[in-house]
Amino acid sequence: MSDEILRVEHLGKTFGTNVVLRDIDFSVKKGDVTCIIGASGSGKSTLLRCINLLEEPTSGNILFHDSSILDKSVNIPAYRAKVGMVFQSFNLFNNMTVLENCMISPMKVLKLDRAEAQQRAMLYLDKVGMTAYINAKPRFISGGQKQRVAIARALAIQPEVLLFDEPTSALDPQMVGEVLAVIRALAAEGHTMVIVTHEMAFARDVSNRVIFMADGVICEEGSPSQLFQNPQEESTRAFLKRFTQG
Amino acid sequence: MNSLPTQFWARVVFLLQRYGLSYLKGAGTTLLISVVATLFGCVIGFAVGIVQYVPINRNDRLIKKIPMKILKALLKIYVEVFRGTPMMVQAMFIYYGASQVFGINMNMWFAAFFIVSINTGAYMAETVRGGILSIDIGQTEGAMAVGMTHLQTMTNVLIPQALRNIMPQIGNNLIINIKDTCVLAVIGTVELFFAAKSVAGTYYTYFESMTIAMIIYLSMTIAASKLLRFWESRMDGSGTYDLATTDTLAFTSGMYPQIKDSRNAMGTKDKEEAKNE
Prior knowledge:
heterodimer; A: alpha/beta; six-stranded mixed beta sheet; four-stranded antiparallel beta sheet; B: mainly alpha; MetI-like fold; 2 domains; 10 helices
């Protein structure tokens, strides 16, 4: 179990009386590509946000390399630097150029000097095919391009796990393609990723494990072939039916 | 002493000839106090707004929590008191109060700068808070997700954008200050209004003297608003950008423009050397 990076144990999250997550258990090993699927409102995004501590879990535990990140002594920014996150709405820094967006965290968080940070930013911008746009502010580039920059920004801190919160939900079909191609390439390079997505074909192809969530619980999990071709639970079948028919 | 002309414009010219320097000095004082006090007010406003925005986490130790809560409460009182009372009353309260109760005889200049600054600061505190709130939470989350601390997020992401967003409000405050410094006449600051009133009293030419004051005030405020607009457009930067060259090898070796330049420099140097040989 030494290659286990993240483990979520009995995780629960409530907003007031609204129970969003109940008794979530799963773990992420190095090199895993885990896709989380399920209807909107099933708690997928909240789960991801809990892992990155953007939301505070109300019960259960999250272990990063076998130590709890909910401990009072944990340096939360330092932990977050090891767990990258890509958002549905990109969340680029509007006051900075594409290059600066990717340089700021290596410089401020990892304390690299300017030249090193720039070199690293360029490396990852090259990986997502955005080097031509380094001088542009986010308002000048398209949604797909923004998301690719956001991926480069997340990669620039060289996190151990990369979390994707519906990275293509705000994009048109063509842009979805360009962003998914980047994520596929990252998967092929062996990056550890947890991806919340509504792109079923992509989930089937890219992941080695799929988790289906409904009403705040993990309904079913397994390998993509097992879950997509031979779902055990009735709710999984009902959910997947809509996608295969649509 | 020349006698006062009977026509309106002739009187205005007469006053300007005789007391032009007083008006000019008064206008200078007004401008100096309002510009400096607006700047200090912005500094105070940013400081207060930023402190009020510091999150208090459940995990924080009491030694950090308690002083932070007290500081926030004090700042809230400051904002409410100075926003909620007239500046003229504040001026007299502070200037005369300080000498009567504490025996401190404040320098009139210091009092003037102090009063207008803290007044502007109280307004700016709320403006800054609004400016920070106006930036969508996504950027804060984006900054947190790459491991930036609250302070780093503030200084690198939120404040530069908040500053741009509240520029119109800073301009507003400057214009209000140019006008409202006239209340400092009550503590004896010889700014434009005080000067105009003194001149008016000498010849009993209120309409003429105040016409001059009105024109000077209006020119100052229009100039201020034009200047701030210009500054805003400078802050917005260029409305366009250049695509970078696709020579990715140049980038990965560091500062790409310098590399290009040095290549050219090398090239010409080589040629020169070749010629010499």
